[in-house]
Amino acid sequence: MTTLVLAHEAGGPSRHLPVTGRPWLNLYGVRLRAPETHHVALQGDAALIQRLLPDELLLAILSKLPASGLGVASCVCRQWHRVARDPSLWQALCQEAFGRTLDRSALLTQVRDPHGGSWRAMYLDRPRLRYDGVYCSRNTYIKQGIREWAVQNAVHMVCYFRYYRFCADGTFVYRTSPEPLTRVLRSLTHPDQRAKAGAAPVVYVGRYAQRGSTVHTSLRYNDSRATELRARLTLRSTSPRWTTSSRGSAGAR
C-alpha cells in the first residue's frame, strides 16, 4: 500500500491518505484486440493475390492505368482502394492533364491553395481538356422554306452537330454532321489511324492551343488552301455533359 501526501497552501498541515490498488483498471481492454498492421491483416482471410502482391508492386501496376482505371481498381477491395488513392498516382495524372498550361511551381500552388494539397481533388475538380471522349456542340438555325398551296410562309429549323476529338499531341479531329454521335463516332479516330485506314474527307484534322480554361482551335479544309476555320472553346467543368461550351467563332482568310 502506498501513501499520498496532501499539502495545504500557506504552510498548512499536511494530510496522509492511503492509496489502494484500482482493480477496475484490469477490466480495460480485455475484449479488445490490438490494431493489426496491414500485412498482418492480409494473412487471415485475404485472397491469394493480396498475400502475394505487395503494395509496392501493386502501386507500379496501377501507375500504368488512366484515371478511369484507377476508379475501377479502387472498387475491387480495401487494399486496392487504399493504394489507388496514393498521391503519387494522382500527381502524375495532374502533370499529364495540366502540364501543357501550368509549370511545376504553378501546379504546386494550385494543389495547395484551392484543393488543400490533394492531387486527387485537383484532378477531379479542376476543369481540364479530356482525351477520352468526343465534344459535341449542337447548333440550330432558321431557314426559309418553299411556298406551297397550304403553307405560304414556310420555315424550317435546321439542326446539325459539330464534333471535336482532342489528342494529347496537340491535334484534334473535327467533323460537322446532322447525324447523332453514335453514327459518326467511328470516323473520329486519331489522325495517324485515319491516314492508315484511308478515312473519308469529311473529317478534318487541325491544331489547338490551350491558354488557361480557353482552347483555341485552327484547321484548314482538305480541298482548300486559303480557308482557315477557327473556334474558341471554354472549359467549364469536368462533367462529361457540360465540359465545354462553344463561345466564338470561325474566321476565314
From TrEMBL:
Domain named F-box: residues: 47-93
* Presence of the UniProt keyword Repressor in the record: no
Q: Does the keyword Acetylation apply?
A: no
Q: Which GO terms describe its cellular component?
A: cytoplasm; SCF ubiquitin ligase complex
* Keywords, ordered alphabetically: Ubl conjugation pathway
User: What domain of life does the native source organism fall in?
Assistant: Eukaryota
Give the matching InterPro entries: F-box-like_dom_sf, F-box_dom, Hrt3/FBXO9_C
A GO BP annotation:
SCF-dependent proteasomal ubiquitin-dependent protein catabolic process
What protein am I looking at? F-box domain-containing protein
